[in-house]
Write a sequence for this structure.
């Protein structure tokens, strides 16, 4: 029960913080147009829209690709504190008329430093609290918060605040949402000591060990990247093909938002389905949506198609994150999830930058078709290497390399053959079904019984040295030696480990006693 309250409090703070961010989507362009000065309007709006992504992307890449490790709770607290202080100061300057374009760009640049890292930290903290059983549902609720706050409630409330009080007050609302999220984090999230242990491995190395996760990161990036030309083409499509005005564009975006809200609400119903085929189906169905918009000229059909597109598009991010996190260890979550969040977020401005020239070259309907066709090309990437995942589950942990059929030549008779790997760097791993060789019983032998000696030759292999026969002349010569020289020779050869003489002592009845 306590865990459910913590998750509910964190999700509520996330919802209210996203509402403030959604209000800035409407308020910041209006604020920029009122103080751009001699800077062209399009360039000024571009600078303001891009400023929150610069430092936040650098920090997120340092966490995802490097070895910078900060507890998620600390990152989220830092994001809330810095965001609330900076945006409140910008709101005061805007209301008093002292805000300028360079100050606004610098404030957004600094205040959103922890924006991407804080966004991934919210997901990590919520999924850690929910555990493996509740990860899918929590990811679905986070997607529902984002869809409702950023695309429905936030823009509507932002328009009302800008029209009644001014764009500067939207900055205060966003700062207040950050303070609410800060209170929810301090009250509902445990201390960093209770979070899972972190590893020093970068997210890129983890993705290299899991090729399926790396391919899904590519799919995540280009799925969001190829969606952005649709936003550029839609106003031209509504005015040109559908012959509708601003009201038609608003109704069309409302249909997408309603479908996305319904799709995000139904994410928890998809938890029992195989996740990889589900991701492939989402990509394919959304790719058909802009193609269907390009071939229709009726507003009612376009509303139906775009509403179904939102229904299909919304579950993609929660399902992809759940699929990814289910195959990662606890210490690998932060760097990989941060890397994914960065790739998905940075894809948006890059896609918008490409959408303008693409729509100018191909037209609104041609741009919609190109976007859909290029999205269809992601299907083979998402569907390939199905052996890397289990049906209905996430990514598997990497298996040990399979041994080749080459014989190492080290086995002896009586020892079962175990194939060795091709690479010399990898250690020879015995097979799980291999039977250990039976130990041979120890049979002690004496020199007298053996009649031979053992010596260590090349490679440490024991070799049997057979005593060669001694001619009779050498025996006679040894018998004629003086007793002193004979004793000295025997004393030199009597040490431990020394080489014994090959000349045996004389026996009675032999030639020397004659």
């Amino acid at each position: 029960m306590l865990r459910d309250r913590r998750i509910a409090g964190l999700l509520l703070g996330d919802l209210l913080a996203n509402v403030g961010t959604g209000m800035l989507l409407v308020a910041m362009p209006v604020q920029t147009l009122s103080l751009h000065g001699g800077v062209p309007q399009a360039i000024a709006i571009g600078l303001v829209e891009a400023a929150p992504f610069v430092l936040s992307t650098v920090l997120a890449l340092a966490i995802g690709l490097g070895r910078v490790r900060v507890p998620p709770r600390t990152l989220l607290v830092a994001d809330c504190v810095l965001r609330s202080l900076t945006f409140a100061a910008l709101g005061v300057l805007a209301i008093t008329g002292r805000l300028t374009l360079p100050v606004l760009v610098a404030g957004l640049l600094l205040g959103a430093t922890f924006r991407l890292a804080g966004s991934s930290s919210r997901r990590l903290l919520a999924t850690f609290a929910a555990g493996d059983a509740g990860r899918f549902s929590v990811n679905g609720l986070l997607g529902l918060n984002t869809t409702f706050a950023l695309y429905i409630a936030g823009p509507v409330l932002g328009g009302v605040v800008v029209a009644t009080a001014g764009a500067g007050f939207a900055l205060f609302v966003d700062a207040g949402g950050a303070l609410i999220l800060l209170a929810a984090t301090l009250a509902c999230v445990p201390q960093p000591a209770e979070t899972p242990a972190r590893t020093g491995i970068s997210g890129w190395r983890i993705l290299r060990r899991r090729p399926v996760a790396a391919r899904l990161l590519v799919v995540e990036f280009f799925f969001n990247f190829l969606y952005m030309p649709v936003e550029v083409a839609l106003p031209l499509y509504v005015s040109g093909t559908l012959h509708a005005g601003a009201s038609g564009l608003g109704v069309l975006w409302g249909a997408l938002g309603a479908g996305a809200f319904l799709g995000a609400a139904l994410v928890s119903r998809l938890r029992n389905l195989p996740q990889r085929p589900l991701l492939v189906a989402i990509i394919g169905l959304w790719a058909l949506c802009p193609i269907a918009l390009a071939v229709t000229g009726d507003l009612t059909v376009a509303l139906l198609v775009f509403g179904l597109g939102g229904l299909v598009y919304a579950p993609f991010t929660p399902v992809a994150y759940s699929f990814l996190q289910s195959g990662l260890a606890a210490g690998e979550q932060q760097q990989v999830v941060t890397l994914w969040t960065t790739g998905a977020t940075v894809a948006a401005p890059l896609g918008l930058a490409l959408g303008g020239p693409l729509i100018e070259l191909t037209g609104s309907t041609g741009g919609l078709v190109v976007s859909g066709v290029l999205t269809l090309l992601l299907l083979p990437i998402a569907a390939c290497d199905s052996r890397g995942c289990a049906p209905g589950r996430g990514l598997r942990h990497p298996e040990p390399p399979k041994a080749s059929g080459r014989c190492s030549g080290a086995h002896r008779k009586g020892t079962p053959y175990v194939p060795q790997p091709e690479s010399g760097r990898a250690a020879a791993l015995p097979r799980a079904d291999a039977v250990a060789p039976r130990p041979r019983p120890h049979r002690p032998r004496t020199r007298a019984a053996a009649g031979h000696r053992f010596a260590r030759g090349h490679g440490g292999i024991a070799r049997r040295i057979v005593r060669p026969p001694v001619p009779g002349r050498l025996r006679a010569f040894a018998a004629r030696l003086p007793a002193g020289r004979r004793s000295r020779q025997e004393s030199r050869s009597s040490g431990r480990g020394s080489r014994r003489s090959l000349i045996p002592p004389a026996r009675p009845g032999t030639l020397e006693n004659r």
Remarks:
- Confidence is low (pLDDT under 50) at residues 385-436, 446-462, 493-503, 509-514.
- Strands lie at 452-456, 462-466.
- The radius of gyration is 38 Å.
- Residues 418 and 431 are 7 Å apart (CA to CA).
